[in-house]
Amino acid sequence: MASSKVMWVFCLLALLAFTSCSYHVRAEDHATKEKNEVMEYCKRYIFKNYGDQFPDPHRKCCQTVRESRHIHAIRQKFTHADLHKISLAKWAHVTYWCGNRLHTGTNCAGFILQNTKRKAGPVK
User: Is the entire prediction scored with pTM above 0.85?
Assistant: First the structure.
């Protein structure tokens, strides 16, 4: 009787661990997918050699940033190759401009976000 209870508890713990790990992997996959979408749709605004800093709020770049559930996880997904192409200051500005900004004090691969006094979104 005692061994069946132990086995039941072990199976329950194993199931819980598997479910938790599976959820974490899905969140990681979504963050990677969103990072790739940002690199595609926002390159005009975040690449170092491009000059446009103000994405149209109705275009795909802002839509992707605004709808992102993993905005803080995206910054961890930037690869070394990505970081050579993009400006983290521009990336932070795009998140701010599109209305899903990174939190003040966020360390984005060495770039620390400063406090801003304006509300998120384009100035009218």
Answer: no
